[in-house]
Amino acid sequence: MPIWDHQHVILEHAVLHVRPGAADDFLTAFASAEPIMAAQRGVRTLRLSRSIERPEVFLLLVEWDRLEDHTEGFRGSPDYGRWRELLHHFYDPFPFVEHFEYTAFGFDGGHRDTGPMVPDGVVTPHDVAEATNRFRLSAGLVRLTENPRLQAVAQRWSRQMADHNRLAHNPWGAEEIPSGWTSTAENVLQSWQHASADDLLAQWAGSPGHRDNILDPAYTDLGVGVAVATDGKLYATQVLARY
């Protein structure tokens, strides 16, 4: 799984002052809002931290590919209305949001940041999507469009499985998928970190239910997520949808 090149992303920064006595309700609402952000085009990471000295103050940090992905893409989308409805009434005063670019200074885990790193042998979501489309083409079907918003949902769930080291379906998948779809399906698997894209596709294709999802002619879009657990197990997710 690639580690993002932090030198080429935009960092959104907001200090959130929550109304007195409402912090617990805010955290509950934020849990519902997080999948909305995870599904946005261009979003890379999201982190909400709570002040130790002032428990009703929170720090929101979001990494974006481009400034416009936040200021125009997300804020101009219907999803922003739902985000605002869930969270904005908690703030007093309303937060001032700023955007930052990374400098050349800083370190992570005791090591200087030397740029992007991709662990050897770990397949990428794009590789898996390409293998999926080759399989569909061999069956006489059209290619699926790689949808970055579906990929965000798939990647988040793969990371969740890897963090807990447990294979499971996403119980909130249908709610997290961006609106507009008419049918959807999810495939998940567990393999090992040196498995190739073709290895993963063969594992899915060997299961009738997963194979049927991949070869369903109704689907138009695809998102793939891949994550590796600390013991080397690889977890992958396919989210298929018809738009």
Description of the structure:
There is one protein chain. The chain is built from 8 helices and 10 strands. The chain has 243 residues and is of the alpha+beta class. It has 2 domains: 10-101, Alpha-Beta Plaits (2-Layer Sandwich); 125-242, 3-Layer(aba) Sandwich (Pathogenesis-related Protein p14a), CATH 3.40.33.10. A hairpin with a 6-residue loop joins strand 2 (43-50) and strand 3. The longest helix is centred in the middle third of the chain and has 17 residues, at 148-164. The two termini are 28 Å apart.
Mean pLDDT over the residues:
87
Structural class of the secondary structure composition? alpha+beta
Care to count the β-strands?
10
Tell me the CATH superfamily of the largest domain: CAP
Q: SSE string, helix = H, strand = E? A: EHEEHHEEEHEHHEHHEE
CATH fold-type name of the largest domain: Pathogenesis-related Protein p14a
What would you call the quaternary organization? single chain
Total DSSP helices: 8
Q: For the CA atoms, what is the radius of gyration?
A: 19 Å
> Helical percent range?
25-40%
- Distance between termini? 28 Å
CATH class of the largest domain: Alpha Beta
Number of domains: 2
- How are the strands of the largest sheet arranged? 2-3-1-4
CATH architectural grouping of the largest domain: 3-Layer(aba) Sandwich
Largest sheet: 4 strands, antiparallel
**Which spans have pLDDT < 50 for at least 5 consecutive residues?**
1-7, 107-118
Principal-axis shape: elongated
Give the percentage of residues in beta strands: 25-35%
InterPro entries: ABM_dom (IPR007138), CAP_dom (IPR014044), CAP_sf (IPR035940), Dimeric_a/b-barrel (IPR011008)
Pfam families: ABM, CAP
Domain ABM: 10-100
Protein name: ABM domain-containing protein
